[in-house]
Amino acid sequence: MSGSTLEIENLHVEIEGNKILKGVDLTIKGGEFHAIMGPNGTGKSTLASAIMGHPSFEITEGNVYLDGKDVLAMEVDERARAGLFLGMQYPSEISGVTTSDFLRSSINSRREEGDEISLMKFIKEMDQALDYLDIDKNMAQRYLNEGFSGGEKKRNEILQLMLLKPEMAILDEIDSGLDIDALKVVSKGINKLRDDQFGCLIITHYQRLLNYITPDKVHVMMQGRIVKTGGPDLAKRLESEGYDWIKEEQGIEEETTGQEV
Amino acid sequence: MTVDTKVPYDNEYINQFSQANNEPDWMRELRLQALKQADALEPPKPDKTRIDKWNFSHFKHDAVDADKITSLHNVPADIQDVLDLDNVPENVLVQRNHMVAYASLKQELKDKGVIFTDIFSALRDHGELVKRYYMQDAVSFDEHRFTALHAALMNGGVFVYVPKNVQIEEPLQVIFWQEDPETAMFNHVLVVAEENSSMTYVENYASHNDETETVANIVTEVIAHDNAQISFGGVDNFSAGTTTYVNRRGVAYRDARIEWALGQMNDGNTISENVTHLIGENAVSNAKTVSVGRGKQSQNFTAEIVHFGKESEGHILQHGVMRDRSTSIFNGIGKIEHGATKSKAEQESRVLMLSEKARGDANPILLIDEDDVEAGHAASVGRVDPLQLYYLMSRGISRAEAERLIIHGFLAPVVKQLPIESVKNQLTQLIERKVY
């Protein structure tokens, strides 16, 4: 086996008493790229947030394991150090903390004390990644996400992904709000990490991202569950035919979990 | 302890004290007059902070001898921290208790007529000049009991004078080191910039009396004549035993500019007032303060800019972090007097509370007596945002480190403004020590 394995078993998640996820099962192995698609409000982002440990979500049932380790028992920072990464849909803005200082702290958090990355090496790696993602070098000295455009925030998430090199990444609507050029750049960054070790779960509404990043498996989520799984062709069919045929096939009338998320 | 702010010293004591320092007659008379009025005057009433239980009467006043400092490498570590010893500052004065323990000023500046000396030497050597400004244009001795006590008992401080058209690039730095734990510091700082001059002045207050009670009563007057520029940096770091009243007041004439950057890091109860009067047309002041509260201390911070001159501009930025059971009131006041047309007043007060028991209160106040002006304010009091913590932690950063980053980030806009690198670093370290 190469890389890490993320196992999600019968996951149930609530927010303020509302049941959002109603039993999600999914296994992603190192080297695999999975995509979760589905209409709005079906629980896709909740799945991403719950795995990372977002403070607003409550897990009422089920398990998440990374290489057999109980992810749900870990603090958020421990999950990250164990190898998980979440590219967020709405990253926080943090005033007074430069993107560069934040990145360095993040890199050093997974290294031993006394073995921190040297400033030279850090700057070199960061500059390379900035160039690769076609990001203005000034961004490194700007406060983290403060005043960033939607596109800049998404690129910054991918910048972090490239520098932190996690075992397993979840990308939550990393394509939303991006124009076609930005989408290509972001895809280029994600594809660069692709090897037989790195696992990735891509959450998206749109098939267009999957034109640039070919998934190994495509899952469709409705009513807080995965209702269908297929290969890259499934995404293409959803693009041309929409979701109605799946609803029909599954006997689903209302695809959302009963509320907007 | 009940309220007792009566002056524990009499005329005879003041006379002797003044004579022992060879003060000019006017100074002795000012002291005696102030002493006479002190009991009749009320203490100041800081908004929303009760000070009646604070210690204002338990202190020693008698001067304590202190040794000269032969090398800046021989001072305590926390005082060394504010000095850049790899690059020893050329214009620096260290006041140890009430004595000048170390002083240096570049010959080039002396030749240009710059005065940078302790207040007693200034009274002897530049008596008329000091008399012209001492408690005249900025602070009056009879404003309230504390200003009167200050005038009566003044026992230290510095005089800084920059003549017309003299521009000083390098900072003038003063360290007020209260080594004796019992003796009160009635410090007077007088900074005067003549027309078209410019300077950067930085002061650091430090004491080490965690248990022993005493008082600091500090008055600072900063005068910027037409088109003068003063950048004033200060870091207050009195220990928990010291009750502090500090009043820093500026007066800016036509086209003058006063920039304040204050690190309010005392551990004891504190009233800190920073008021600037924009007298002349087009005068500008920026007041940036950063404060940390911890333990059980109570603090009251006022930053106020009063506009008299047309097209004058004032910006106030206060950031404070409160932990433990500390309480702090932040008053940001912009006042535009009638006739100060086209003036601009902005103020922002932000408080971050780190514990359930900490209390912070931000009061932005605009008092405007003129129509044709621009004014705005913003205030917030809150706790560390859990989503910000989540975001930082999701990258592997521990909770403690994430909080540290958020707090630093919160205070950074002010810390960055401090005019001397070593002081900026010291303030950063101080914040680090006080917040964790």
List the defining traits of the structure above:
heterodimer; A: 261 residues; alpha/beta; Rossmann fold; 6-stranded mixed sheet; 33% helix; 28% strand; globular; B: 436 residues; 2 domains; 10-stranded mixed sheet; 9-stranded mixed sheet; 10 helices
Walk me through this protein's architecture.
Chain A has 261 residues and is an alpha/beta fold. Chain A has helices at 44-52, 76-82, 99-109, 119-132, 150-164, 180-192, 232-241, 244-250, and strands at residues 5-15, 18-29, 33-37, 58-66, 69-70, 84-87, 94-98, 143-144, 168-172, 199-203, 217-222, 225-230. Chain A has a domain at 5-92 and 167-250: Rossmann fold. Chain A contains eight helices and twelve strands. Chain A has a six-stranded mixed β-sheet, with helices on both faces. Chain A has a four-stranded antiparallel β-sheet with strand order 2-1-4-5, covered by helices on one side. In chain A, α5 (150-164) runs parallel beside α6. The longest helix of chain A is centred in the middle third of the chain and has 15 residues, at 150-164. Chain A starts with a strand and ends in an 11-residue tail after the last helix. With 436 residues, chain B is of the alpha/beta class. Chain B has two domains: 11-279, no CATH class; 384-436, no CATH class. Chain B has helices at residues 11-20, 25-38, 77-80, 107-111, 119-125, 127-133, 145-153, 386-393, 399-415, 421-435; strands at 92-96, 99-104, 115-118, 156-162, 172-178, 187-193, 198-207, 214-224, 229-237, 242-252, 257-264, 270-278, 284-293, 298-307, 313-322, 327-336, 344-353, 359-368, 374-383. In chain B, α1 runs antiparallel to α2 (25-38), α2 runs antiparallel to α7 and α8 (386-393) crosses α9. Chain B is globular, with a radius of gyration of 21 Å. Chains A and B meet through α2, β7 and α3 of A and α8 and α9 of B. Chain A: Pfam families: ABC_tran. Chain A: Residues 6-248 form the ABC transporter domain. Chain A: InterPro entries: AAA+_ATPase, ABC_transporter-like_ATP-bd, ABC_transporter-like_CS, FeS-cluster_ATPase_SufC, P-loop_NTPase. Chain A: Belongs to the ABC transporter superfamily. Ycf16 family.
